[in-house]
């Protein structure tokens, strides 16, 4: 796989960070002998950014809780998007307070962080001095760039780091409403599996359980295609509805609900389940 042209390379880097000087500095060092050399160059370029350069980078990021339409923004904020209304409202209020205090969007490397943790960090950083916050923002920017580069880099045949267009995996969330009671269904175990064809083999990716609002916020990230190539993948959600009904002392006809659907890279799939003891329905929500 050849190293991309200069224009293509700069375009790929712009998907990682919109700061012009960062793009120029990282592009100038290409090709890199190893992925680690690329990451080190990125870290150095972030440290070298002026205040205006950091502001230019921040301008390329969406407000936490308000992802943009592109797949990267939706993926990075998928766990926040699946949060309950109370957390979303608190995030919105804290975001406005942060913008009023520091005059910019709150920047945080959200990878691996749930909405409650992000909210706690936002509130903590509201107590920073402007100087301390500038230092934290720069470190968060460094982390975000590193995560995005790791998704976009492949080692070439000679070991050199090659930037490619990242095949963003789809993201999945769900919400269960018990229509017999008109209330959310908490503590329902949910399992996510993937395959590249209906007959399988199916690979269990992991599982979670619905919270008190009936939402499942932390399902694992599916692959971007069964082999990571960016092709459509089949996903299956399995809901252990029998456990929920037994806990409530309710006789139920369906001991479980399994839903299979085709997922394209970069898309978010919210799949709510409307449940009662003798029937169910599912649909693609938003």
Quickly give the CATH architecture of the largest domain: Orthogonal Bundle
Task: Describe the global form.
Answer: flat
Q: Give the helix proportion (percent range).
A: 25-40%
What is the radius of gyration? Answer: 21 Å
- The number of domains is 2
The count of β-strands is: 12
Descriptive account of the structure:
There is one protein chain. The chain is α+β, with helices and mostly antiparallel strands and 286 residues long. It has two domains: 6-163, UraD-like; 171-282, Transthyretin/hydroxyisourate hydrolase domain (Immunoglobulin-like, Sandwich). The protein contains ten helices and twelve strands. The strands form three sheets. Strands 3, 4, 7, 10, 11 and 12 form a six-stranded mixed beta sheet that branches. A four-stranded antiparallel beta sheet has the order 6-5-8-9. A two-stranded antiparallel ribbon has the order 1-2. Strand 11 and strand 12 form a beta hairpin. Helix 1 packs across helix 2 (20-28), helix 3 (35-48) runs antiparallel to helix 9 (130-152) and helix 7 (85-102) packs parallel to helix 8.
């Amino acid at each position: 796989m050849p190293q991309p042209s200069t224009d293509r390379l700069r375009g790929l880097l712009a998907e990682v960070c919109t700061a012009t000087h960062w793009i120029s500095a990282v592009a100038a060092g290409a090709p890199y002998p190893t992925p680690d050399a690329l990451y080190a160059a990125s870290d150095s370029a972030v440290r070298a950014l002026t205040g205006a350069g950091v502001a230019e980078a921040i301008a390329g990021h969406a407000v936490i809780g308000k992802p943009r339409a592109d797949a990267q923004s939706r993926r990075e904020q998928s766990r926040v998007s699946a949060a309950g209304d109370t957390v979303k409202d608190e995030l919105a209020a804290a975001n406005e307070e942060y913008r009023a205090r520091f005059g910019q969007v709150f920047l945080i490397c959200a990878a691996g962080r749930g909405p409650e943790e992000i909210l706690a960090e936002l509130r903590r950083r509201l107590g920073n001095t402007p100087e301390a916050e500038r230092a934290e923002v720069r470190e968060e920017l460094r982390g975000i760039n590193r995560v995005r580069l790791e998704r976009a880099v492949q080692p070439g045949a000679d070991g050199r780091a090659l930037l490619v267009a990242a095949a963003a995996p789809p993201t999945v969330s769900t919400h269960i409403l018990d229509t017999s009671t008109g209330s959310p269904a908490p503590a329902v175990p949910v399992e996510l599996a993937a395959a590249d064809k209906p007959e399988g083999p199916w690979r269990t990716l992991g599982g979670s359980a619905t919270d008190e609002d009936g939402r499942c916020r932390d399902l694992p990230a599916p692959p971007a295609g069964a082999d990571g190539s960016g092709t459509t993948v089949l996903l299956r959600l399995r809901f252990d509805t029998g456990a929920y009904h037994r806990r409530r002392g309710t006789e139920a006809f369906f001991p479980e609900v399994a839903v299979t659907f085709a997922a394209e890279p970069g898309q978010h799939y919210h799949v709510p389940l409307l449940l009662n003891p003798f029937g169910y329905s599912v649909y693609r929500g938003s």
